[in-house]
Amino acid sequence: MSADLDRARDILIIGAGIFGAAIAWSLARQGQGHRVTILERGHPAGGATSRAAALVTQIRDDPVLVALARETFLAMQALEAEGEHLGRHHAGALHVVSRQGAEALSQRAEAAAALGIRSERPSRAEVQARAPWLRRQAGDCAVFFPEDCYVDPYLLASAYLKAGVRGGVRLMRDADVRHVLHADARVTGVELSDGRRLEARVVINAAGAWANLLSVELGLPLPMAPVRSHYWITEQAPIFPRNGAIVFMPEIRAYARPEVGGLLFGIRERSPAVVDARKLPADLSGFVFDPADADGWESLAEGADPLEGFFPAVRSLRIAHYVTGPSNYTDDAQLILGASRRIDGLFVASGCNGSGITFSGGVGRLLAELVLHVSPFISSARFDPARHAPFDPYAPAFLARCAATRAGKASG
Fold this sequence. Notes:
globular, 9 helices, 22% strand, alpha/beta, seven-stranded mixed beta sheet, D-Amino Acid Oxidase, Chain A, domain 2, FAD/NAD(P)-binding domain
């Protein structure tokens, strides 16, 4: 066994992104922090986490996903009670539609109410106060969910990590995991790129967009692929209040929120760019998903006309920033959470489908309960990492199916 770890630390978490950090924190809250080491090859939360738009919303059509999201709200409250700053903005979320979409929006609000999610019917004046950049007529068909918020994703991940460390978790930097080790259908530890071997009874693969690089060689291909997630941030302008609401425009597959005096907005294109995970560099700085549309201008042009119907100033304002990163989408829109059927002690937490920040608290709790053999607060059956028959996660047809999941994702 490596001298870097003592035998009491028998739980290794690969990756200090939002999922890995939340799992470590949840294990620490269960009094197991002294057993946990997080292995991070680069900077904590330096991958997809730090590039997220970081909307934290409860509105889902699936009660299980609502339960995962609610755990994140509880986690944020607990972290803030410990003195952690999350960059949380209690903005609420406006869902705005045309008159043709009014009935569907009403049905969604009724379904949310049945799950205990409060909503309001704002007046046009109230919509304008919360999002003065919207076309005035957009306020005629709107529902406001006051509990939704957005955070600084780096600060949230850091808060999970810092609170976990206070609970006994160890963070090991420059720890590039190359292989998960096993013998007799049982995890034995990991091997690092520098040749060190670390023993463990539990290994949790929370390596984000790179998770398949470790999983495929174990005979556990994960049904996910890195799909381009991107957004734009406008220049600062008086029409963007810093305390403005999140806005979802589901009919045009768009969302927006305030960002330092400007507006951060995203559009889900019809054919999102997707890559083979083996082509992702360890450092995403400068990585380009699609050389033909490196700065996202074609995607923006595709959605500009419908967006202008809600956001008239989109064509006149300068774009100040463009942010892109890999988000793990699955071909069936389900997360990948749980234990391996083939290798005892191996767990996976991935496949966020663009909602990793929202689900982080729930994912942390669920994985901690599974690892500790505690009855889980939700069933994880649908999230089974091996729910597909053997397949090639790098096949072009499979990558296309994962991209299609992003293209068809509902707002929220």
